[in-house]
Amino acid sequence: MGRLDRYIFSTAAVAFLGVVVVLAGMIWATQALRQLDLVTSQGQTILAFIAITSLTMPTLVLVIAPAALFIATAYTLLKLNGDSEIVVMAAAGMGPWRLLRPLILLAILVSLFCSSLAVHVVPASLTSFREQVTKVRADVVSFVAQPGRFVNLTQGLVFHVRERSANGVMRGIFINDAREKEVSTYLADRGQIVESKAGIFLVLENGSIHRRGGDLWKTEATPQPTPEEARAAARAKLAAQNAGGQAAKASEPAAPPAAAPAAGDQKQGRSDSKAANSSVVEFQRYAFDLSSLAPDNKGVDIKPMERPLTYVMNPPPEDMYVRFFPGRYREELHKRLSAGLYPMAFFAIAAAALAQPRTTRQSRGAALTAIIPAMGLVQIGNFAIAGQLKANAAAVPLIYALPVVTVIICAMVLQGWIRLAPPAALTAFIDSIRARFSRRAAA
After folding, report:
1. Total structural domains within the chain
2. Cα dist. 136→63, 142, 274, 371 in Å?
C-alpha cells in the first residue's frame, strides 16, 4: 500500500471509527437507562451496571456499521474533491477504481467484521446479557442486604438491616411478613444468608418473632332491636309497672339497680382478646426461608437471536419457536448470513456518486441529495424483506439479491456504462440556493 493509499485509507478509517463510537455511545446511553433498576433496586454497583449493559454494544455496532461506512466514504470523497485532489489524480491518469482501492479494502474489512458480529459475537453477547441480568435479579444477597433501607422484597414482605459487615454478617435485622393472614414480625441482633441444596435461608440469631392474628381488632357488634320491637318492649314494661307497682311498694323495698359493668372489665376483655390473637417467641437461632424470592430459571424463553449458528441452521423439533413460530429461525438465519453484504452496498452507493472528479463550479449537493434517499431505500427494502422471511420462504433470495444488485448497478455507474444525472431543473435550483447562502455569508 503506497503513501496515497495509506492517506485515503487512514482518513476513511478514522471517520468510520469516529462515527461508530459517537452513534453507538449515544444509543447505548439511551438503551442503558432501561436497565437502571440494576443499581436503584437490585443493589448493584455502577461498574456492574456498565459491564452488563456493555454486552449490548455488539448489537448496536452491527446496526450502525453499514451507515457509518457510508458516512465515512462520503466524507472522504467529499474532502478529496473539495481539496481538488481527485481532479489532480484524474489529470495524472488515475481512474476511479484506482482511487477507490483503499476504500474498497476498508469496505471489505467492515463487511467481514459485520459478518463476524452477526454470526458469532452478537448471539453470544445477547446470551451473556440475559444470563447476567437473570443472575443479578436472582442475587438475593445483594437485593436483601442494603443497609439502612426498607426493602420491599415482595408483596407483603419488608426487610431492613442496620448494617452489613465485610464477611456478610448483618446486624439489626427487621422483617415484617404480612403475606399470610397471620402477620409475623422478626427481630434479630444478627443474621447471615446461607445457600444450600435445600434452598436459600437467612439464619437469624438472638431474636424474637411477634405473631398477630389477622382478626386481632375484629369485634362482634351486639344485635340491636328494631324501633317497633323497642316500643313494644317499653309499653309492656310500663303496663307491668302500673299493675303491680303499688303492691310491690307495700310488701318489700325496691330492688337496687343492677350495677353497670365496669369499664375496667371491658378493657380487660379486650386485652384478653389481644393476648389470644398474638404471641411472642424468642429464639437463639432461626432459619427464615428466602428460596421463594429467587426466580426459577426453568422454562426461560431463549430467543432465536440468542442461539448459535449451528442451532439456528438445524433447530430441534421440540423447540418452542419451531412448533409455534416456524419462520423465526429462517428469518434469523438469513439475516445473519446477509449482514455482511449491506455494508458493501452502502459503500457502493457513496462511491458511485462521489468518486468522479468535480470542479468547484459543479454542485456536489445534487449528488448528496441523490445518495441519501438511495441508501434509505436499500435499508427500507432490507427491513421489508426481512419481515417477509417469517411468513414466506420465497423471500429468501431477495434478501441477498438486493445488496448484490445495488453493488452491480453502482459498479456499472463507475465504469461509465450507466450515467445517472439529476434533472437540470433540480441542479439549477440547488445551485441557486447555494449561491444565495454564499452571498449572505460573504455579506
Report:
1. 2
2. 27, 8, 43, 46
